[in-house]
Amino acid sequence: MTSAGSTSKEPVPAAKAEPRYRRLLLKLSGEVLAGKGSFGIDPERVNALAEEVAEVAREGVQIGLVVGGGNFFRGAAAAAQHMERVTADHMGMLATVINALALQDALEKKAVPTRVMTAITIPQVAEPYIRRRAIRHLEKGRIVIFAGGTSNPYFSTDTAATLRGLEIHAEIVAKATSVDGVYDKDPRKHADAVRYTTVSYSEVLTRDLRVLDATAVAMCRDNSLPIVVFNLTVRGNIMRMAMGEPIGTLIS
Prior knowledge:
This protein has helices at residues 43-58, 75-80, 85-108, 131-139, 157-167, 201-206, 214-222, 237-242; strands at 23-28, 62-67, 114-118, 127-128, 143-147, 173-177, 198-199, 227-231, 249-251. By secondary structure, the chain is an alpha/beta fold. The protein has one domain: Carbamate kinase, CATH 3.40.1160. The chain has a 9-stranded mixed beta sheet with strand order 4-3-5-2-1-6-8-9-7, with helices on both faces. Helix 1 (43-58) crosses helix 3 (85-108) and helix 5 (157-167) packs parallel to helix 7 (214-222). The longest helix has 24 residues, at 85-108. 42% of the residues are buried.
């Protein structure tokens, strides 16, 4: 109770932090869906990943997502074992559709509307990729998972992610990996490897750092689309990235 003539002031709540990016393209490797295994889909891992993505979407961030198919099939690896490369790559594209459907199921169980759009036409399973429709889905708050790569052999899912990121006018391509950024050499093989906080597109290409497919890096360079590479295995890193916290390595 206050005395006459005195005033009391309620504490002003701190302003809620706003996401740094309003539209982003998140690139996941297929292997992350396998969890501790080396093959297939681990439901617990998919559920945990979906929860992280859902949290970011609830902040109003529009998310396009590309997932690889390496937990089922790698076209380049199969081609190295004398399978015809085009056939092998098409099999890899179909593996990305399997992963996209698994992620869609997990996200929608968390009440996050999600659409799978595939570059390979499978009308009974997913929508065909149509750029304007994809943008409309994003504007309506739906997560869009882009499957089927680019539908062309010899192009990686890194390149597909860059292409879709450019087409939907994403502000950044975020590549989630099992390491915490870009190093001057493989940190799993060299104890003295040094991590970059920032690095230029040209240095990534000239030093052959191989964090992304060279075609993807060149496309981002030519269109001034930044890339952030960060560690997906740390809980909350997707949110930190979306909020603009300096995690991982920024390629710009």
